[in-house]
Amino acid sequence: MVAKEFGFRNNGFSVYINRNRTGEITSSPNKSLNLLKIKHGDMLFLFPSSPPGSSSENMDTSGSQGMRHIGVPQVVEDEIDQYLIKQDGKIYRNRDQQLCRHGPLGKCVHCVPLEPFDEDYLNHLEPPVKHMSFHAYIRKLTGGADKGKFVALENISCKIKSGCEGHPPWPEGICTKCQPSAITLNRQKYRHVDNIMFENHTIADRFLDFWRKTGNQHFGYLYGRYTEHKDIPLGIRAEVAAIYEPPQIGTQNSLELLEDSKAEIVDEIAAKLGLRKVGWIFTDLVSEDTRKGTVRYSRNKDAYFLSAEECITAGHFQNQHPNICRLSPDGHFGSKFVTVVATGGPDNQVHFEGYQVSNQCMALVRDECLLPCRDAPELGYAKESSSEQYVPDVFYKDIDKFGNEITQLARPLPVEYLIIDITTTFPKDPVYTFSISQNPFPIENRDVLGETQDFHSLATYLSQNTSSVFLDIISDFHLLLFLVTNEVMPLKDSISLLLEAVRTRNEELAQTWKKSEQWATIEQLCNGMKPILTLLLFLALGCAAKPKRQRTTSEWDYRSEAEKVNMKGCANLTVVLDNWKFAIMTQFKNLLLYDHQTVLPDYGRIKPLSDALDDLYKEFNALKERLGELTTRFEGVESFVDEMNKGQSQPPARMPIKIYLSNGTEYVYIYDQEGRLMKAVYRFPDQVWHVELLPLHQQLYILCAGVGIYCVSLDYQSRLAKQTDGGENDYFSSVLPMGSNACTFPDATLCTFTLLNDVLVTLSQVQGKWCMNLHKLPGPEDQENFPHQPISHVDITTCTGSDGDVSLAHFLPVLCCASSPSASEHKEGLRHSGGFVLEEPLFSLLFGVDAAMLDSPMILCGFPDGQLCSVPLKALSSPGSCSREDSPIKILHHLEEPVVFIGALRTERKSPDTEELPAYGDLGCDCVVALGHYGKMVAIKAAQGEEVKVPELREYYLQGPVLCAACSGGSCMYYSTHSDIYAVDLDSNTPEAEKVEDSAGTLPSALSPASLSICSVVALSLSSRESEGESELLALSAKGRLMTCGLCSPDDTQPVKMNPDKAGQRIKELLSGIGHVSERVSSLKKAVDQKNRALTCLNQVMSVSAALLSSQNGQKPIACTIAAHWSHMLVQNSLTISCVLENLSECSLERGWTFCIQLFASSCDFEESSSDAAATTYTFPIDQLLPGNKTEVTLPLGPAEGSKLELPFTVSCSLYYSLQEILGTASESTELLDDLFSDDSPGLSPDREGICLPLREVTVDILQCLRLDSGTEKSDAVTPSAAISPLPVDPLDTFLKLSEMQADLENVEGSDALAPRVLGALGDGYLAPSVASIKVSSELLRTALKDFCAGCEWVTYGHGKIRKSGHHVHAMLPQGEAPLCCAVLRWLLMENAEVDVLQSQEVAAVRGLAPDGGKVAVSDLDPAGPIQAVEIMIQGSPLANMCQLHHAVIRRIQALVLEQAAQDDSPPDVRVQYLHQIQANYEKLLKEAQSLRDNLCLGNDSDAIVEKLLHVYQQLRNPSLVVL
Predict the structure, then answer these.
(1) Checking phi first, is residue 1309 left (phi over 0); if not, alpha (psi -120 to 50) or beta?
(2) CA distance 273 to 225
(3) What is the pLDDT of residues 624-648, one digit of tens each?
């Protein structure tokens, strides 16, 4: 009968009468409930039945047992999980000698063992641990008083629940029962794996070899085991023993996995070896410097650690390898599958970083809700719902620019919310599951490297490993996989014994397997490969050698060879060969029958014979024409050779003008100006800083940043052009790379250099000092023996050191050479190195008479700090010059800004009677100029003094910043800025009418730069066409455009008659100038349009701001209404805030406005501002709000039941408009806002990046959050006797009961949500609520609440009191003026959304439920008192909730009193002396309470003191003051 009544079956459970499992009720059809004396209301206890042979004493009593739920599948967890469940896991501490005061067997708070999830302990580890272990997390869940009875490890689901029949399927319908919940991404507190350790470095090195040899990225699966990680309490470590590389296609920046047919076999072999797949690894390596072996550091906090695509892949793998967990209803929870990335670290070395993705990411990937972003690898994207799939909303929390925590929709989503980092280590003492050999067996799927797994590789491996221990030879993971997966003779069915030998390291088992027939066959196959390889080698040598007429043959001695054959393996070999034959013939037959197109050629692609003959004929004609051209060229060369032999050689033809270009990148271009062809392109490892030509040896010297000087032979480039077939412009299509090993003069400290015939002068910076070195250049035939050691050097000290200005580090020094006219041997070298020849007086005045007598060229140096100095070249080349006490350095001037150019000009024109002299002739230049980056220029010239020449120095200030400059052969200098090229003329000759006395030969007092209307030029140079007698300016733009500008001589005053070629060139230049002007006009037009749009938006913003700021006291044109009400969403009551924005103005709120709502907790201090409290900001962009329209925003504040709602709180609404989009960047918008607003402008946002207009601010307290019952009672429905309820007699008893209950609930997880339920279940009979009262003058209330009293009818009742039952509020009307109590009740609940209950009918009692179970009541004092007053009684439990109610009522009364005091200045008629006496009494009580508390701390007669203290508190809690 019991079994039938309770429905018991044999389901593994037993029923007991007692809790201690005594009095078991067995299943019997003859017993009834009456027979067992079981009555209605008795408690029965249901326990799982113990298996046979076990008892309750032997049951597992660990904490995780309490989490097993009915219906959880019986699964077998991993060995490491079973081991950790049985461990204690606590963190034991030694006795503290200073803090512990107990004996050796005692324990205190300073030495008691800690729990494994103690966050303070984990944070103080080195390094700190952010995530506790998974088993520590389980201990935390099961560590409370309930032992985890109310906790379940449930997997997240993003799919619609099936089986809902109340509506059509998606997309036609959905309900709250089947709809998946929204996901808010949080940092996961635990991780399933706490450490990743490779057994030894060889595993990782062999994996990285693929990238080292190919430069392509690579992928592999990690095979190992899970062990205990003792550094973290209850931690798990993934030990990696081998890496399996599946089929894949890798490039430098991508990986593609191919289908692996051997995956299941590999997992099976690994399981027999005691291993399992524990993770995956891939490389993301980019070489930075091949000489140093460094890699690029690309994965960091400024970029990303894992890309979104990699997170999705990791989530896919983790879903494929779930973590078996018996505590989850699904039987699995999370995953132990790890991700390892081989990438560059902060030290530019290869680092291994370990990661996992969170369970939330696994759910998003499993349900196909997460996508990667195409252009931002660090961002993911949550899919949007479609007709095929419903996707729940995904949110994450972020910090906005105001410092507030906001909730964002995960479109897009930073992947940092999904990643869990894991430390990856290598052991100090390496462990070897598999043996390590100097010649290891090739790794699978590396055919691209030429490393194949076949019997040839096996034979090579066995021959090279001569170890006597067979187990060491065969213990190779990749070799074992080959033995099982090879197609010739797979050993899948017969290798179990060998795998067991490798797993247990048993040499005897290995030797037993070695004697098997299978290994004998393998050895025979390997031995058979040796003669075949030898034969192939001889065949290759025979084919390579020169064939001979006579052939030598030798007979094969088959008898001696037959004696060496192992007959035991011969039978097996014969079977294998027969299998080969049958398989090959069958496969070839099938191909011929069914797939012949893969074997036979495609005859459709073979051209007809006529087409082939036509192609051959065309090719023959092309060769014939080419031969004719070569013949013509050869005739010219032959005639030239004949003339040379006869001594009648003519001057050679003019060489084509070549331009050597470098725009600051790693490329150098050689351009033929005559043929308009690019001759060569060289690519260097880094930026090119300087290029100079040495025409003597036909060599080009190039300085590469951080590498050194390269020497490129122009003859090699010419030979390269001749060797190419076809046109002349075909050979430069491929860039010529110049590696670091091709550097002629490697020196990473070099900054610039200059050439002078066979001398190289370099300038380098070492330890904050400049060092000038002199090198002797070798001849063209001795380039390989370049002398790296300098002939001499000199140190130059400037302020550009390590302690100088950091901005100067971006500038390079300037180096050039100046010579006197007498040094004729250097003139030709100066023309090509950027040097110049100075006339004799200026040379002597600048550098001194000693330098002029030495007849030595001078090296001019311009440094980034502005210093201009000179060094004699012969002082450098003379032996022992470095040790002289007198430094050869002479400082000429200091520009106080970085020097960018040094040059020379000829400012005096030649006389018409004198014959023309070249620019670099004997006369030379008469003025030296130096130009700074910011436009400061200095010119030095020799002027005529009274008796002798004296130096004249003038400083000019030009428009900067200057990028580059160049000097012509005359008096003009050209310099470039970002916006234009300017020309300045320093001609000292003036017209006769304007000539001033003694002004001849002097420098002009001011310069007037002339614009050439060419912008963005980064390099300038002048080239001269000697045959045509003219020069031109070459300019290279930042975009790589080469421009030429013809320069006319100052003497050419007569108009030149232009031929058609020059006219066409002139028209082309004009069109180019028009194009530049058109581009500038277009850019200016775009800027003007953008400014106009910005002004339009700004005008609309100013109109709205002016309308709001001008109506601060009256009705605002843009109104905002804030109301709090309760809603029933998702089958749960929740408090919501509704904010209605209504546009009552004539302006329209367009796109760009944002409706901001701030929620922050209000302080209980009535005078404290709430602006300093931590606020939560919600922003809602406004697309368009036309005049007269409104929009509503509803914010849920969380459920009322089971949660803790902080009351009161303040809701602040405002409009915000960001000005960055219309005014540009943040700095520009800040400057413009400073012009528009003052510093104390009310409309300016705190960050000065936009306009913030406050709309309304409302404080929401507990009175506004009351839920009023619609079933209010009439006044005649309740009698006065029924409303009487006793007030709490002993508040001490209430306080002690509440404290005891809270202490019992502290150890229970979720006690904050559980406490209200327990208190509600016990009822009012167990805990009496806390009470507070406020007495207010009836006259004050009657005067202030006239409107509320008018709505109440005057009814007379007998004397009554207030009754409060459960969560309801009963306001009984006493004898006398009944409407006053009704008016007070309406006034207190005036801002409540459900106040209509009090307005619709005559109300005698109102039932209401507060979010925290508080009650409010209103009653009348005894009319016999001196002042007629109303007492407002407040009840709540616990005490904190009552304080919230008390604060809400006091806030309203305070506002009421202030309002009435402002209207009536006459004081009330009260006894002031009596009030002063009451105040003195309360001050005396406060002092007495303080003294009692001090005595209580000292421990003097605690019982009596506590009784007195409670008596004092009761007097303080019941004041007799009345609010007037």
Answers:
(1) beta
(2) 10
(3) 777 777 777 666 666 666 666 665 4
